[in-house]
Amino acid sequence: MTMPTILVVEDSALNRRLVETVLKPHGYRVIAAENGLQGVDLALREKPDLILMDVMMPMMNGYEATRLIRDHGEMSRIPIIALTASAMPHERDRALEAGCDGYVSKPIDTRAFPDQIRRFLNQAHE
Fold this sequence. Notes:
Elements: E1 5-9, H1 13-23, E2 29-33, H2 36-46, E3 50-54, H3 62-70, E4 80-84, H4 89-98, E5 102-105, H5 113-124
Parallel strand pairs: 1-2, 1-3, 3-4, 4-5
Helix pairs in contact: 2-3
């Protein structure tokens, strides 16, 4: 069985490294993009099993990037999970309206994060 590939689209190098450090020991292959434009390109080329999308980034925000990814029919079943520092309910609604399948608040809970990712992946395969 191949390792599930997780694409993390996040402008903070520290947060990208944190996600990789937390997920790799759990058998995930982590690839990264530092802005929405790179994220869309990498998503379409790599077809990851799950995308973690920061919503506030320069060049292209996560909402726009999610919409562009969702515009490609073959990408419709890949779970996209919004990552945001905002805990406001309207931000969660905005992420879901853009096409995200779920929401994880930053800072991530490093103990719970691998289980959250596993649950999102399992839901996508139900």
